[in-house]
Design brief:
The structure is a homodimer. The first copy, chain A, contains 9 helices and 3 strands, in the order H-E-H-H-E-E-H-H-H-H-H-H. By secondary structure, chain A is mainly alpha-helical. In chain A, helix 6 packs antiparallel against helix 7. The first copy, chain A, binds a DNA duplex through helix 3. Chains A, B: Pfam families: FCD, GntR.
DNA sequence: AATTCGATTTTTGTATACAAGAATATTGAC
DNA sequence: GTCAATATTCTTGTATACAAAAATCGAATT
């Protein structure tokens, strides 16, 4: 599958929005960005539309494209939905998961633990992501898995921050063990609740993180 | 909010895909459609991209745009997700719903029943939709409500068919009553289960409908 | 000095032009 | 007659050109 210029530009812009180069509310000027990327306005507009559909940019007719970072309220809402979606994945996966996938989950957990011991947050993050992605897939519903991945990806930059809170990685690890346990036992509701809690707590951590950042700024 | 030509074209094309004018796998020729709509290729390509994002069209680079009706498997998956999403909405709504919204739900049910008595499936459908939409909103999570609406909309053409099955409207009505009851009592899990079942059964009905259609065609 | 109306300038939305890759047809060999 | 290689045609992706709407700036009036 070949990639169009618009795809590459969309990715690049997404990155810039995530890393804060383009702050919330910033206007994305078509001509300026076009020459910055060395392309014409046509593929750039395509990229903007793609971003608009994934919610990162608001496209106001005859006005332009504006960066739309989700506010605290919307973020909390998204974390809540993420928690519920993961819970659903877990409930279905508990009934459908393969032995091989259980092995993979176990493996991911072992590597997570090793990363914690080695104080290696990057590896931790990668293996953590693998853990969750396996559960999405093992829901046996590829549409659900795809939706879950999409939301996961969208929350990525916000989830990452709260991993820095002290003790969070260790606690998260314990939660993973509980989730794996429930899945091994085919305990649907248990798996669902464990996953819901696991993700919901991330939302709450994020919330308190936001609060401290805000009060620090005042 | 003004509307661009691309918006209008996207809507029109969506309609044509839903009603079967453009069957599954059909190639959507840019130049032909452009002159058909009396516009240039530029806004038409925008419309195609929008449809691609909502999953109705597959955009293959350097190849073109092809209609992608969901197959039976994907449809079942989508119904399963819809059932789970509605269940989540119900669980949250049971904790958060307002008295006024409960009144509205009751009103929608009364009108649904009246429509059944009057053998008026169109009104039934409208009020049924209102019933569900209220629950989405009363989840108190506008992000969730929006996702639910989007999926609801996407499944619309498939849900409509199975309402014709005899006795379905009446049974659906009884399920609505149970859902309303659970919400009134603030019974989260009950509401969730009732809604999950209510929607899941639609998927199953649809499945059997598909099966009969398929065997009839052989 | 502030405000409002108007002209100018930007900037978006759309059309057209062009370039490159894919599909198709044609010709030649076996 | 079939297959393969090449030429031709089509179609997409991108650039540029143009039109219309919005923003900006300025002058005139109060």
């Amino acid at each position: 599958m070949e990639r169009r210029r618009a795809d590459i530009i969309a990715e690049e812009l997404e990155e810039r929005i995530f890393d804060g180069t383009f702050p919330d509310g910033a206007r994305l000027d078509e001509v300026r960005l076009a020459e910055k990327f060395g392309v014409s306005r046509t593929p750039l507009r395509e990229a903007l539309q793609r971003l608009a559909r994934s919610g990162l940019v608001e496209l106001i007719p005859r006005r332009g494209a504006f960066v739309r970072q989700p506010g605290p309220v919307e973020l909390m809402e998204m974390f809540e939905v993420m928690a519920e979606v993961e819970a659903v994945c877990g409930r279905l996966a508990a009934m459908r998961i393969s032995d091989e996938a259980l092995k993979d989950l176990h493996d991911a957990n072992v590597k997570c633990q090793a990363a914690i011991n080695a104080l290696d947050p990057d590896t931790y993050y990668i293996e953590n992501e693998r853990f969750h992605r396996i559960i999405y897939q093992q829901s046996g519903n590829s549409f659900l898995a795809s939706e879950a991945s999409s939301l996961h990806r969208r929350l990525k930059p916000f989830r990452r921050q709260q991993l820095r809170l002290r003790g969070r990685m260790k606690q998260s690890m314990a939660e993973h063990e509980a989730i794996l346990n429930a899945l091994e036992n085919g305990a649907s509701e248990e798996a669902a609740n464990a996953l819901r809690g696991h993700v919901a707590i991330q939302g709450e951590k994020f919330h308190s993180l936001m609060a401290t950042l805000k009060s620090a700024a005042e």
